[in-house]
Amino acid sequence: PRGSSTMDPELESELQAVVNSGPSETGASAFLRRWPLTRVLVTAAEVEESESGLGNLAKAAARVLVSTAIGAELVLRDEGGALQLVIGGLLGRANAAVRAEAARLAALAIARATAPVPSSLTVALGTACVDDDVGVADAAAAAVATMAKLFPPLAAEAIEIAQREGGRAKRATICDAAVRAALASGCPEGFATQLETLLLVAGDESDPLTQLSALESFLALAQAAPAFVLKPSRLSAFLRIAARDDPFHAADQALTILGAALARADLAALETNALIG
Questions:
Q1: Per-chain mean pLDDT for the chain
Q2: Is residue 189 within 8 Å of 157, Cβ to Cβ?
Q3: What share of the chain is helix, strand, coil (3-state, %, to 5)?
Q4: How confident is the model at residue 4 (pLDDT cuts 50, 70, 90)?
Q5: Cβ(212)–Cβ(192) under 8 Å?
Q6: Checking phi first, is residue 176 left (phi over 0); if not, alpha (psi -120 to 50) or beta?
Q7: What is the DSSP letter of 5?
Q8: For 170-187, how does the pLDDT look when each residue is reduced to its tens digit (9 = 90+)?
Q9: Contact (CB, 8 A) for 208 and 248
Q10: What mean pLDDT comes out for the span 239-261?
């Protein structure tokens, strides 16, 4: 039952064995022949909500199992409703710690994915990226970044969902998630549509705190992918910000971004950018 602080002693013993042995396909397979993964996921979430010490054991075991190929497959193909439990944890739990843990489990499963992840998980992660709890939003953004390494278009879709769901109040959070995903993908141009929309946030003087936060995210992009920032249309946007006189030093931040990009730029790539505009 929800909120119970007890656990089947046999299950508890075997969960402890899973945690002690660490990720092992053989060990996970043997455990999952005896216990449904959904039982572990439910136990982890429910004892976490009851603040029982057993929650840490179930949570640790769930992480170990989902980080194996067999465990990840069970989640992603929704065996016994495992994926729906993860999505429900992301979106339906009142406890922020449970929502954040669901996002971390999603990232573990995605990292072992051999086929595009289900669209329902993409939607859930995009929505969770704008969760009111900072820890949940950060865990979801990390999961989207993991997705970007394997399935960049799905990660870009998750960012678009975050943009739709988050609205103006979450623009800084979305900018951070988008930059993290773009960098993780290794090809920021695949996120050009989302990032150029967010570049407007960096240029919006009406909300100085959000503007500065967005510029901080773009600084990370400038350092890791200077050619993306220095493409003429984007360069012009940062130059416009740098030319302003504002009391919050957004102009200084824009100059820092441009300086970081130029310091790391490949001159040959910049010449090509200038030619194709």
A1: 88
A2: no
A3: 80, 0, 20
A4: very low
A5: no
A6: alpha
A7: -
A8: 999 999 999 999 999 999
A9: yes
A10: 89
Q: At 119, is the pLDDT very low, low, confident or very high (cuts 50, 70, 90)?
A: very high
The answer to whether residue 13 scores a pLDDT higher than 80 is yes
Determine the distance from the C-alpha atom of residue 137 to the mean position of all C-alpha atoms in its chain, rounded to a whole number.
8
CA distances to 54, 151, 271 from 218, in Å: 42, 22, 22
Q: What is the spatial distance between Cα 75 and Cα 81, in angstroms, rounded to a whole number?
A: 8
pLDDT at residue 86 above 60?
Answer: yes
pTM tops 0.85:
yes
Q: In the prediction, which pLDDT does 1 show? A: 36
Q: Residue 265 and residue 268: Cα distance in Å, rounded?
A: 9
Any idea what DSSP says for residue 78? T
Helices (H) and strands (E) counted in the chain, each on its own, are 17, 0
Q: Confirm if 254 and 241 have CB atoms less than 8 A apart.
A: yes
3-state secondary structure 94-151: CCHHHHHHHHHHHHHHHHCCCCCCCHHHHHHHHHHCCCCCHHHHHHHHHHHHHHHHHC
Position 245, amino acid? D
3-state class (DSSP) for residue 54:
helix
Model pLDDT for residues 185-223, shown as the tens digit of each residue = 999 999 999 999 888 888 888 888 888 999 999 999 999
CA–CA separation, 70 and 37 (whole Å):
10
Are the C-beta atoms of 148 and 188 separated by less than 8 Å? no
For the chain, report the end-to-end CA distance as a whole number of angstroms. 62
**Sequence-distant (≥ 6) Cβ neighbours of residue 8 within 8 angstroms:** none
Rounded CA separation 97/24 (Å): 26
